[in-house]
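Re-run requested by the PI after the first attempt was lost when the workstation crashed. Everything re-entered from the original request form. Ligand of interest: arginine.
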Amino acid sequence: MAPVVPLAVQTRSRLVSAMDRALPAEHTGADPQVRRSDRADLQANGLLAIAGKLRTHPRAVAEKVVASLDGADLIASCEVSGPGFVNLTLADSALLGQVEARLADDRLGIPRSLAGTTVIDYSQPNIAKEMHVGHLRSTIIGDSIARILGFLGEDVIRQNHLGDWGTQFGMLIQHLAESGGEWRRENGSAAGSLSRLNRLYQDSRARFDSDEEFAERARGRVVALQAGDAGTLRSWQEIVAESKLYFDEVYERLGVLLTDDDAVGESFYNPFLAEVADELEKAGVAVNSDGALCVFFEDIAGQSGEPLPLIIRKRDGGFGYAATDLAAIRHRVGTLAARRILYVVDVRQALHFRMVFETARRIGWLPGEVDAVHLAFGTVLGKDGKPFKTRSGRTVRLISLLDEAVDRARLVVKEKSHDLAPGGLDTTATVVGIGAVKYADLATSRAKDYVFDVDRMVSLHGNTGVYLQYAHARTRSILRKAGSPLTARARVHRDLALEPAERALALKLDDFEPALTEVAHTYEPHRLCVYLFELAQSFTSFFETCPVLKAPDPEIRDNRLMLCRLTGDTLRIGLGLLGLAAPDRL
Ligand SMILES: NC(=[NH2+])NCCC[C@H](N)C(=O)O
């Protein structure tokens, strides 16, 4: 299927050709800067700058270009305005042609414009601990970016950098051995066992901090674990396996792409850490400082004003979090052949990643042509504007949040839905509730904090997941009532004139690809949310002013049905790229 080129891009090409014809040769290739505009469909602003360079009156330049514009099939009218802008109105037939061409392709004419390998590190929960809202953000944002890059043709390798290694496991395993604390699964779900493990983990931490003799035994346990002592290793493996089961339960509930194959935890890099440290030391990138192996950064000062170290190996010989991340970069570039590595991690780790990336550049593990980007995100806040905690001050469990959202969604659906899918209330409440949580997270600009407010998330008014799911279901319901098959060849009558609301909708439908490309460049899924919300609003205005089933004549009805169909398809694919389901009935 040939890609469908957005009308703005087509218009730009026509203007460039006209400029080639009308202007002196040294200005070929200049950008006419075609943008969407309020005054007309499109506006070209680039001629002003060119006129400046040519020392000619800008309006005269614009008039000349417009006079040599060849675009009758595409552009209905074109006029010079103000100091030398060009306002362009697209031909109705061109807008309808786009609708027809997009409907003929199951990717809606969107090309696979990316090609390369991207590693994306996201979710990253910690073994023996329950997932919390911070992991929710990483999981949801990372998953959507993975989907969008993949849709645009990128080869995406997901890496779930599980916290499954380190001194804390010595503590936990020792405590389990001594206390006989029972945590194993009683029923089918791993949520209960993880909750018990989480509590035992906290107990072990408290004991470690208060009981020096226990701390000594726990440190011995770390040594045993690292040396591969059979019993210790078995305990660790058991805890890891149970934690993974629990993560998978959460992932399935959330409907994210992550599977067990993506789980490449910190322990995976353990065998390479000594080598990483040696190489850094030999290359002189890391130096011995007070018995620890560190990398220093002249331009990054700590609180005391001294250059801040990145610790590779601690004084006791243990390797830190940074050593693991450096080993991971080596693996991702050297073995996985990434041209880009994305880290979806809390903004509080910004300095860590800056130092890790800089270290990897210095030693050459991260060559200039490979990008490494920390996609930092803000904190989830409670209604009091403080980091989201339970009343007793504990971090909030992800599962209970999801349960709450689904319960709240059930009430909304029960009250509002007249057209429930066969799966009934429970299925729909799940789709709406989980979708609401995901959408609320994605719709906020990534770097910002946001307030976790379930009522707002499941609201039918405003920029919410359920608003978009309803808009999608509405398009499907219209098509069902019209008896119009969802997949048959598009029947578009190109010679008909469009009403303003139809034009606005058709124009918006043509903007899907630029919206996706923008997310791929900025890694900000909220831009796709904004697009889909505006599309749903354009659809609502269209639907309110242009009767579809009762259209004045059969050909107009056909055209309107096709607009409904393309809106529905665009919403379905767009919601899918955000990780939301789009049921046909709601
Ligand atoms: N490659 C990484 N360091 N990824 C982030 C890991 C996040 C860590 N497990 C945490 O919960 O804070």
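Saved to the shared folder this time. The CA atoms of residues 181 and 433 lie 36 Å apart.
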